[in-house]
Amino acid sequence: MKEKIAINEVVTRDGFQSEKEFVATADKIKLINELSQCGYSVIEVTSFTSPKAIPMLRDAEEVMSAIKREPHVTYSALIPNLRGAQRAIDCQVDLFNLVMSVSESHNRANLRMSCDESFATLSEVIALAHHHNIRVNISLSTSFGCPIEGAISEQTVTRWIQRFAQLKVWGISLCDTTGMAYPSLVTTLSQRTQELFSGITTLHFHNTRGMGLANVLAGIQAGIRSFDASLGGLGGCPYAPGATGNITTEELVHMLDLMGYDTGMNLDKLLNAAQQLTDLMGRILPSQLLKAGPITQLHQPPTQPH
Ligand code: COA
Ligand code: ZN
Q: Count of domains in the chain?
């Protein structure tokens, strides 16, 4: 029996949130409907944030209510506060992905709150979600380093893990907002999280410094079986200086397939969707696999001039 690894798609949230040109609502819906056929565990559809803070996702309600939901896919959304939670409940979001940073400076830049203020707000959101029987994941941004403050101590990260574990959340994501994670740090924090928290631990990497897939391997070796990734490698937080794309879903799936893991994903469909996303964005995306093709794609031998 192959070991299962869950893949969570974030392109229509993390991928689109910092684009300059608004992606049409109909295009977002079409893309999500196609992604729903690819085998994901979770698709993060959008965010219920302030439309002033994230204008690209101001159509959250429209997108959430128009997509065709497949029963085996969990449809989640990012939520920063109670107002966002109420909007998400009204649209029947399956899984709340709450967000706060473990560094004060990035939390203030991103959410205009101190970490303690975010925690107080999110505690109320968790109570509301539990009242409605909605699963809650908490995404801890800047867990592997903050672009404003630098290294974050292990104690800081574990303190937030413990506080949210006490609130009985379903999952915790350690998020590497600007690609500051490196494999040995991933090993340490993955182990600590699983010691302190019995729910699902997810790793969320950005490939800003080329360490994304190396970090995934460190996570797998430490027992993690759930990863976020973005189609084509789009992504980045608009309030994190220097942020660039997430690890690329098709590259992650290609690698895990070759290694014999069961991701449940259809790589051909995924590559098709990535090509369509390239056409939609009108530019070459970071995905290396889209350029090179899978290793099963062979070529005619090159001919030499005589
Ligand atoms: N959805 C829609 N509108 C919201 C909202 C939400 N979740 N939260 C607040 N607002 C509105 C308020 O109603 C108010 O509107 P008004 O100006 O018309 O009266 C306005 O936004 C300001 O509200 P306030 O509570 O003062 O929020 P703020 O301006 O301090 O912003 C956040 C706080 C958290 C709402 C905002 O910073 C945000 O949405 N950040 C998300 C950042 C993000 O997604 N980053 C990338 C992912 S890591
Ligand atoms: Zn991210």
A: 1
Is 306 within the bounds of a domain? no
Tell me, in angstroms, the distance from the centre of ligand 1 to residue 56's CA: 14
Q: How far is the CA of 150 from the centre of ligand 2 (A)?
A: 17
Task: Point out the residues that are catalytic.
Answer: 237
Query: Which residues have CB less than 5 Å away from ligand 2 (the ion)?
Result: 14
**Which ligand is closest in space to the CA of residue 178?**
2
| Domain boundaries, position 99 | 6-292
In this prediction the pTM is 0.98
CB atoms within 10 A of CB 22: 14
Domain annotation covers residue 1:
no
| 70 domain-assigned | yes
Provide the pLDDT for residue 299.
Answer: 95
pLDDT along the chain (306 residues), means of 10: 97 97 98 98 98 98 98 98 98 98 98 98 98 98 98 98 98 98 98 98 98 98 98 97 97 98 98 98 98 96 91
- In a domain, residue 145? The reply is yes
The CATH number of residue 91's host domain is 3.20.20.70
Q: Is 111 in the pocket of ligand 1 (CB under 6 A)?
A: yes
pLDDT > 70 in the chain, percent:
100
Residue linked to tokens 């969990």: 74
Angle at 117 between CA 114 and CA 121, to 5 degrees: 140
Ligand 1 pocket test, pick from 50, 112, 119 with the greatest ligand atom count within 8 Å of Cβ, gives: 50
Residues in Cβ contact with 120 at an 8 Å cutoff, skipping those fewer than 6 apart: none
> In the chain, at which residue ranges do the beta strands (DSSP E only) sit?
6-9, 42-47, 74-79, 95-101, 135-141, 171-176, 200-205, 226-229
